[in-house]
Request: fold
Amino acid sequence: MKIHALILLCMASLTFSASANIYREAVDNPNRSAKEREIDSKRKPDQVLEFFEIQPGMDVLDVFAGGGYYTEILSYLVGQKGSVTLFNNNPWQAFAAKAVEDRLKNNRLPNVKPLITKPEALDAQNKQYDAALFILGMHDLYYADPKQGWVAIDRSKFLKAIYNSLKPGAIFGVIDANAMQGVDNEKIGHKLHRVDPATLIEDVIDAGFVLTEQSDVLRNPNDDKNTSVFLPKNRYNTDRSVLKFRKI
Reply:
């Protein structure tokens, strides 16, 4: 009886280890750039993607993916039977065009498809995803800066479009830099590129999602939350909320 229990315990341990390894293997892929690998210790993508339950074979939407740091890791993780959509709106694409071009040139990530469209029109693509990730970008939904090319986004419509683009039961993973509770998100989003996590959670729930779990993997109690995320001391070192929502 004891031997049987020991065998089951070992099998469970091996299963967990194999599952955990797929995330580490995707992050350690030798085709990734040395520059991006240098910031892995601050962004912890293996732990983040495991928390968000991304699995091989999934179709994943990378929202406001920018140059595609997460897109590439996702590409290796979901594999040939999965796909990743690198989604930017026009302003984000203008900013990240060279990085996207370099990442996708010569079909180096054959399971990645770029998508450029208005956020509010995302669900017009008529594609259903197994998961969507919105990493370090939701604060941009709370302000407009037309002089710099950032037009106002209908936040409610956009979040609902993400909801409509997901299959029932799909995960919506959100990460953003935390601001102080009760701040004016329009001012803080523009000035510091942070957001009050309570407001963020409320807005995502209003779109139809259910908050199922939060992770402390990117928390930093030493972050004062009152300075720009782009300061050298803050770069990928802010106090960040890691939120797992689900479409029910």
